[in-house]
Amino acid sequence: MEPLGTVTILMIICISCLVFLAVRSRTPENAKQLPPGPPPLPIVGNALQLKTNNLAQVLQEFGEKYGSVFTMYFGTERVVVLHGYDAVKEALIDRGDEFAARGHLPLADDVNKGLGIIFSNGEMWKQLRRFALTTLRNFGMGKKSIEERIQEEAQFLLEKFQDTQEKPLDPTYLLSCALSNVICAIVFGKRYDYNDKKFLSMMSLMNENFQVLSSSWGQLYNLFPSLMKCIPGPHHKVLKNNLAAREFVLEEVEEHKPTLDPSSPRDFIDCFLMKMDQEKGNSASHFTIENLAISTVDLFVAGTETTSTTLRYGFMVLLKYPEIQDKVHEEIDRVIGRSRSPCMADRGEMPYTDAVIHEIQRFISLIPLSVPHAVLKDTPFRQYVIPKGTTIYPILTSVLHDSKEFPNPKEFDPGHFLHKDGTFRKSDYFMPFSAGKRICVGEGLARMEIFLFLTTILQNFTLKSIIDPKDIDLTPVLSSIGNCPRPYQLCIVPR
User: Fold this and answer.
1) Total Cβ atoms within 10 A of residue 323
2) Residue pair 246/294 in contact by the 8 Å Cβ criterion
3) 20 or 478, greater pLDDT
4) Is residue 13 part of a domain?
5) Where do the annotations place heme binding (predicted)?
6) For the chain, which has fewer Cβ within 10 Å, the N-terminal or C-terminal residue?
C-alpha cells in the first residue's frame, strides 16, 4: 500500500481539527467545571494514552496524577473516572440514586439494545431487577435449597476431577459447566450433562465473549464504535455469540410453555412467562419475550463466567502458593473432616479459608473498572459539576488495591483479612461485586458457590502445578472490562 501523501495527511489533520472545534462549540457551559484530566486529542481523545492490554493500570496512574475524580475522553465520549475508596463510596453508596444509571459501553449496548437486567435503565431496569431478585430468592438464593443444589453439583465436579487420573488438564470448562449448572437449575429448572454438546457450545460462546470484551478488539470497539463496525475482527463474534445464546434460551422457553403450571412455577422462565401473561393487556409492559431472552442470558452469563473465572484464577493462586493451600487443607480437615460435605455454616468456623477466598477476589479484581455508571442530570460532585449523560467509571481496583487498607496490595496475602489473633477481619473496601444500587444481583449466590466449591474440591484433592510454582505468572493476560487469567494446566491429585 502506498504511504499517505503530504496533502492527504494535512487534509486529515484539518478535518480532525474542524470536527474537534465543532464538538467543542457544542460543549455545555458546565463542562468548564469538569474535573481535571489529561488533555485529549481531536477525535481520538485520550485513546493513544491507554494501554489496550492493561486499561486499569493506566487509569490508576492517572488517578495518582489528577486525583480521585478526573475526566478522560474515550474517543469522542467524555467519561469521568472515580479513583479510590472515598470517591467510589460517595458516588455509589452515599449518593447511589444519582449514580444508579448504566453508562455507555458501546459493544454491550449494540448487543443488548438497552434491554435486560444489566444494561437497561430507568423504570425497565427497576422492574426487571426487582423481579429477578424476588425470583432468585424464591428459588433459594441465600437459602438452604440452593446450598444443597451447589453441594450436589460439587459432587458431579469431583467425579469429573477423579476421572482425570491425575493427568494435566485445563480446568476452564469443567468449572464453567459446574457453576453454570447451578444457575441453570434456577433459570431453566434443570442441569445439563457435562458432555451435552449444546451446553458445551454455550460455555464456549460465553468464555469467548468474556475474552473478546477484555481484549484490545473489545476496547477499540468501545472507543471507536462507528469505525470498528466497519473493520473485520473477533469483536463481531460478540453479537453473533449472544444471538446464539438467546436462541438457546428461546428453545428452552418453547419447551416450557406447554407444561407451565401457574400454581407451581418451576424456574425463572416459568415466572417470567406468568408475568408476561399478567401484563399482556399493558402495551407499555417491560415483560416481553425480548426482555425474557436477554435477562435470562444476563443471569446465565453472570452466574457462569465471573464465578468460574474467579475459581479458575483462585486455583492458579493456590498453585503458586502451595503453603497457603496446605493451611486451607489443615483447616478443612480440622473443622469439616472427610466424612461430610462442607456447608455454609462451616464458614464462620474457618477464618483462614474465608480470608483466602476474600483475598483471591481482592487480588484478582476480576471486574477492575466495574460496569460503567452514568448521571442523568447535571450533578455537582465535590467541587465539580458532572454534565448530564456523562459515563462514570468507578475503578474497583483502586479500592481493592488501596495500600492504606491493604499493605502491599499487589502481593497475595490472606493476612489482609485476618486480625492478629487469627479471626476474620471484615473490610468496607471489599467491593468485588461493585456497590450500591447496581451491585451484582447474584452476589449472595456467588459467595456461596465460591466457598462451597473451593472447600469441597480441597477437601478431596490437592492442586499440583506442572511447572515450578515460582514460574507461575499471576498477572492477567488481558485486563480491561475483566481480568483474564493466563491459560494453564494443573494436576488434581486425590488426598
Assistant:
1) 8
2) yes
3) 478
4) no
5) 440
6) N
Long-range contacts from 240-247, C-beta under 8 angstroms, 24+ separation = 241/205, 241/206, 241/208, 241/209, 242/111, 242/112, 242/209, 242/297, 244/201, 244/202, 244/205, 245/202, 245/205, 245/206, 245/297, 245/300, 245/301, 246/293, 246/294, 246/297
Alpha carbon distance 228, 241 (integer Å): 17
Query: In this predicted structure, what is the pLDDT of residue 167?
Result: 97
Q: Which long-range contacts (CB under 8 A, 24 or more apart) does 142-145 make?
A: 142/444, 142/445, 142/448
Instruction: Indicate the number of domains in the chain.
Output: 1
Q: Supply the mean pLDDT for the chain.
A: 90
Contact 293, 432 (CB under 8 A): no
Residue 163 neighbours by CB under 8 Å, 6+ apart: none
Could you give the CA distance from residue 150 to residue 152 in angstroms, rounded to a whole number?
Answer: 5
From CA 325, how far away is CA 431, in angstroms rounded? 24
- pTM equals 0.90
In terms of Cβ atoms closer than 10 Å to its own Cβ (0-12, 13-18, 19+), residue 480 is buried
CA atoms within 13 Å, Cβ hemisphere of 324: 21
Q: Which structural domain range is residue 320 located in?
A: 49-494
Rounded to an integer, what distance in angstroms lies between the CA atom of residue 410 and that of residue 407? 9
Q: Please, which pLDDT band fits residue 2 given cuts at 50, 70 and 90?
A: very low
End-to-end Cα distance, the chain: 62
Distances (CA, A) of 262 to 128, 252, 268, 293, 406: 20, 17, 12, 20, 51
Could you list the residues known to form a binding site, using ranges: 440
Q: 313 with 320: CB under 8 angstroms?
A: no
pLDDT of residue 31: 54
**Is 157 in contact with 182 (CB distance < 8 Å)?**
no
CATH of the domain at 180: 1.10.630.10
Q: Which three cell numbers stand for residue 35?
A: 474535573
Query: Residue range 415-437: average pLDDT?
Result: 97
Considering the domain boundaries, does residue 8 fall inside one?
A: no
- C-alpha 107 chain-centroid distance: 15
Q: Is residue 129 part of a domain?
A: yes
Which is it for strands 490-494 and 461-465: parallel, antiparallel or unpaired? antiparallel
Reference 475, options 363, 394, 307; nearest CA is 363
Q: Please check whether residue 399 lies inside any domain of the structure.
A: yes
Phi, psi angles (nearest 5°) of residue 268 = -60, -40
Sheet strand arrangement including 391-395: 69-74, 77-83, 391-395, 373-374, 101-102
